[in-house]
Design a protein that fits this description.
mainly alpha; about 10% strand; about 70% helix; two-stranded antiparallel sheet
């Protein structure tokens, strides 16, 4: 049990820090996305002159917002789950089933991370059709944004979710060993309720 807690406590602190940064970046991405969409609406319907870049910029921000907020939702139990079978089983057996499902999830997350890295590597070959950085002041002119920067949201999100999954696995093992164990908590956790 001591070995589990020795690994679990620093991992929980690391996850808390990384997910806090991710949530703040996700909220900023959402706010910026709303501003960009409103700008497009104004240019399209008020000035009758739609801009070329807002749709792709919004998609870019939405992908990153999702990749950065999903690990917090996973840690807080905000994903859809069917707990009927687990709840019908005796507590220890239900905990073992939950641990098994966490291990299966970890396999899926790691495989998805590998696929995401492959997708990112192909993204370096292609430029965004409309996103360009105006770097004239550095003498570089207009630099087209590589699609890999957009695709990178997938492996980053899956990597963070894998860290969370390992934390949840360690907590589940510790809970099976000692249901009264004092496990680290996420003080940033918000109440996720589904009605």
């Amino acid at each position: 049990m001591t070995a589990i807690l020795t690994v679990l406590k620093p991992l929980a602190l690391l996850n808390t820090l990384l997910l806090r940064i991710g949530r703040n970046a996700a909220w900023m991405a959402m706010g910026l996305m709303v501003v960009i969409i409103m700008l497009q609406v104004i240019f399209r319907y008020v000035f009758n002159n739609a801009l070329a870049w807002p749709d792709e910029a919004s998609r870019f921000l939405m992908l990153w917002m999702t990749g950065l907020i999903a690990p917090s939702a996973y840690r807080w139990g905000g994903f859809v789950a069917i707990d009927m079978l687990k709840d019908l089983l005796p507590p220890r057996l239900g905990s073992l089933l939950g641990l098994l499902l966490l291990f299966v999830s970890l396999v899926v997350l790691v495989y998805g991370f590998r696929l995401g890295l492959n997708h990112v590597s192909s993204g370096w070959l292609f430029n965004s059709s409309s996103l360009k950085l105006p770097l004239d002041f550095l003498g570089l002119g207009l630099v087209r944004v590589k699609l890999a920067w957009m695709y990178m949201s997938l492996p980053v999100g899956l990597l963070l979710m894998s860290f969370v999954n390992v934390e949840l696995c360690l907590k589940a093992i510790a809970h099976i060993i000692d249901p009264e164990a004092d496990l680290p908590e996420d003080h940033d956790r918000v109440l996720v309720a589904v009605e």
